[in-house]
Write a structure and sequence with these properties.
Elements (H helix, E strand, L loop, with lengths): L1 H67 L4 H21 L9 H4 L8 H8 L11 E2 L5 E2 L4 E6 L8 E8 L6 H6 L5 E6 L3 E4 L7 E10 L2 E4 L3 E4 L8
Antiparallel strand pairs: 1-3, 2-3, 3-6, 4-5, 4-7, 7-8, 7-9
Helix pairs in contact: 1-2
Pfam families: COS (PF18568), fn3 (PF00041)
InterPro entries: Bbox_C (IPR003649), COS_domain (IPR017903), E3_ligase_FN3/SPRY (IPR050617), FN3_dom (IPR003961), FN3_sf (IPR036116), Ig-like_fold (IPR013783), Midline-1_COS (IPR040859)
GO molecular function, one term: microtubule binding
């Protein structure tokens, strides 16, 4: 029964992944088409600008050629002066003789690189409960009424949350029976980082702490750690 359930779940999850990929393909395809339209529009504008520049330049060249055919010295000088003024004005005002063609801006490149996503897909596997975290005694600190617990986890990226459990240590050596006595434990659920400060503790008191790593597949507890608050007379 469990095998059939897991097989059905596998098909469902894979179908959802395929559907997500199909939707993203459509979205990216639309973006590519929109980019193509925009670039063609810019290209058409650039071509029009270049054509306009050529037409104006051709008009100036024609006027210059006509000036060269002028036999009258005074008229030749006047015509040449007019051509020079038109060229100077065109260049100074809008630089119509030099079209502004910025190909890098209009045709900026983009890449379709799904290597990271492919690597993630290649690593698909069923999820297991995380390995037990480890309480780092050397990093834990205390005051007269607080204890800050630090821990590490080998499966940090698969852990969705941590749960900190603690109780007063009364000399028990059988930790299994202590775990089973749920009424004696204080629980701090849904911790997202790998440390937590417990407030309101009794001064000069030894506590037992345990950290539970949790994900969708299950949970596992750390080995218990015994940590003590400072006496009020002690300096932190």
């Amino acid at each position: 029964v469990n095998t059939a359930m897991h097989e059905a779940k596998l098909v469902e999850e894979c179908d959802e992944l395929v559907e997500i990929i199909r939707q993203r393909k459509q979205v990216i395809a639309v973006k590519i088409k929109e980019s193509k339209v925009m670039k063609l529009r810019k290209l058409a504008q650039q071509i029009a600008n270049c054509r306009q520049c050529l037409e104006r330049s051709s008009a100036l060249i024609t006027q210059a050629e006509q000036s060269l055919k002028e036999n009258d010295h005074a008229r030749f000088l006047q015509s040449a002066r007019n051509v020079a003024e038109r060229v100077a004005m065109a260049t100074a005002s809008s630089q119509v003789l030099i079209p502004d063609v910025n190909l890098n801006e209009a045709f900026d490149n983009f890449a379709l690189d799904f290597s990271r996503e492919k690597k993630i897909l290649e690593g698909l596997d069923y999820l297991t409960a995380p390995n037990p975290p480890s309480i780092r005694d050397e990093l834990c600190t205390a005051s007269h009424d607080t204890i800050t617990v630090h821990w590490t986890s080998e499966d940090e990226f698969s852990v969705t949350s941590y749960e900190l459990q603690y109780t007063i240590y009364t000399g028990q050596t059988n930790f299994i029976s202590l775990y089973n006595s749920a009424d004696s434990w204080m629980i701090v659920p849904n911790i997202k980082q790998n440390h937590y400060t417990v407030h309101g503790l009794q001064s000069g008191t030894r506590y037992i702490f345990s950290v539970k790593a949790i994900n969708q597949a299950g949970s596992r507890n750390s080995e218990p750690a015994r940590l003590k608050t400072n006496s009020k007379s002690e300096h932190v």
